[in-house]
Each structure stands twice: as C-alpha cells, then as structure tokens.
Amino acid sequence: MMTRDNYTYVARQADETGFISYPADEHSIWQALITRQQAALPGHACQEYLDGLAKLNLPLNRIPQLGEIDQVLIENTGWRTAPVPALISFGRFFELLANKSFPVATFIRRREDFDYIQEPDIFHEIAGHCPLLTHPAFATFNETYGKLGLQATKEERIFLARLYWFTIEFGLVGSANQRRIYGGGILSSPAETIYALSGEPEYREFNLMDVLRTPYRIDRIQPIYYVLDDIDSLFTLAKSDLMQQVHIAMEKGLFDPHPSLLS
Prior knowledge:
By secondary structure, this protein is an alpha/beta fold.
C-alpha cells in the first residue's frame, strides 16, 4: 500500500478464480479516465500505441480484468500481467520483467489524483503501458531491462532507473514536426499527454549517456523529454552494451538538475 496526503491506497485482491471485484465508483473513475484519455490521444500517441490499444479493446464502462489483458499480450508477444500491491521492490520489478510479466497494481486513483499520481495504479499500467506490450520492440526492451536489472548492483540500478524513466515512462518518438508519445507515464495522464507536445517542455534528441546522467523527480510534470527516432530504436538499445554505458555514466556523474526540479 502507498500513502499520499494522508490517504492510503490499498490494492484489491483477486478471488480464487483470479477475478478482482471493484465497487461501482471505481468503475466510474475508470470510465472518466479512459474517456478523457482517448479524447487526448489523436495527434499525441504514437501509432504503435494506438494499434496496441485497438488490440486490447479496453472496456470503457468498467475496469478490465487482468485475464482479458493477458489473452491479448500472450497472443502478440508472449507477455502477461502480474498483480502487485502498489509499489514493489526493484528486485521484484526486475524479476517480473525478466520473465515477461508486467506488474500491475490493482487499485485505481482517486478523483483528486486524475491528472497525476506518483504511485502506478491500474489505469497507468493497463492504459499507459499494456498497449505497447503488444509491440515486439517495446516488449523486448522491457525483458532485456529486467534481465540487466536482476544482475545489477544497487548503485547500477539507480542509473538504470533513469533509462526506464526517460523511455518506457516518459519517452517520445519522431522528428520535430511529428513528435508522438510512447511513454506510459505520459499516456496515463490526460493532462501530461497534452502538455508533452505543447512546445513548453525541453525536447532532447535521445542520447543514452545523457539519459543516464539526467536527474528527474517523480512528483511533478516533466520539464525534459528525450526523443527516439522510432519505436524500433528500442531494439537497438536492447542489443547495446547498456551496462558498460551505465558504468561510464557512474564515473562521469549526474548533470545539474533542471531549474524546475530545485523548488
């Protein structure tokens, strides 16, 4: 469970058949979130995400069951979901990814947290990440990342976290005139979906060393986004010697934080 502003999020447990029961108000929260999100997607989400979203065919009037998501993921990339209680340890996170299981916290945000939530809820995981888990490049990168993280030291994992943050969570793809979003941290926030392509943040060409050295904070809208050429670039990243670059980044140290992160 996670606590924020004196409120405790508690993951809902599945019954013996794997079914998770949610109260009507939480289904209505899902409906409001996904309706608002889908209105923001055209011209913002990358095509690969939209293709995956069509495959998942997420219900609009209720929170989906994880088994429904698993059927689609298994058919496309061999992945499945894994129910977890909100935030989990780095070790457990890497273990799941290495075994092609994507962690999904089985609670949904309050209405007060519609625009941004620090803790990854079921809307973030299902609507933000699972559509792209139907794509081979995205799926392969996540699996590779998990295997690397399992073998990494605590300090190495801290640097690896920046790679995940600026790709899977808050990544963009495309040229200056055709930027699109693939990061689930953006796509699960209707407000940040609009903001990310507004021209207000700083856009940087993806450079692995720079990504590994860039500080970030989880408690605010991002001031910097790194932009890949395309989703298939994740294949290239997965095949590169990521840990060698992590070690070089550790030697060089971090960049100074963006001014907006200092307050």
